[in-house]
Amino acid sequence: MRFRDREQAAARLASRLASYHGQHPLVLAIPRGAVPMAEIIAHELEGELDVVLVRKLGAPFQPELAIGAIDESGWAYISDVARLAGASAEYIEQEKRTQLELLHQRRQRYSGLAASADPAGRVVIVVDDGLATGATMIAALRAIRTKQPAKLVCAVPVAPPDTLEQVSTYADDMVCLETPLNFSAVGQFYEHFPQVSDEEVIEILEKQHR
């Protein structure tokens, strides 16, 4: 199954998440690709939209291959892929510093919009446009869990079964539309999968606070 675009995937996710309508859920997107999706989901569920900032840690000489992920506090999830990819302890520490600095820069770009929404005591739905290794979602869920939500939900259109099983241990509820066995990259499951820019993210977030 391929999705036409992120908008179609978001509409299908919103339908699967309909039980949270009326609970004013906090819908958190992992920037940047998930932000347009989370906007649709938050609208359909009459919830609140915000972002959760995490960064992938890339493998040596293969920056697109995630060996883990880091959140704004500096906590990092390191997967078994790191060892297989030949990432030394020194490399991992340097990559963590690099990505943490990029996280801080992104927060500065977004921080003029409004104070971040407080997840405490709320239903929180963390959205991404798909999972590959699951590293960034794990970091995002862990970051939000520390803020004591009433219920923590992971919502994605597509993920391989083994990644889904691993990530589900970090959430109270897991919503995933498709779990294909033949999985190489999230983009293969979309007919139209353009990059989302920081400018688009800022425009969407600004609309929430007008």
TrEMBL record:
Pfam families reported in the protein's UniProt record: Pribosyltran (PF00156)
Key words, A-Z: Glycosyltransferase, Transferase
Name the record gives this protein: Predicted phosphoribosyltransferase
The organism's place on the tree of life at top rank: Bacteria
CDD domains assigned to the protein according to its UniProt record, in alphabetical order: PRTases_typeI
All copies of domain Phosphoribosyltransferase, residue ranges: 6-189
Gene Ontology MF terms: glycosyltransferase activity
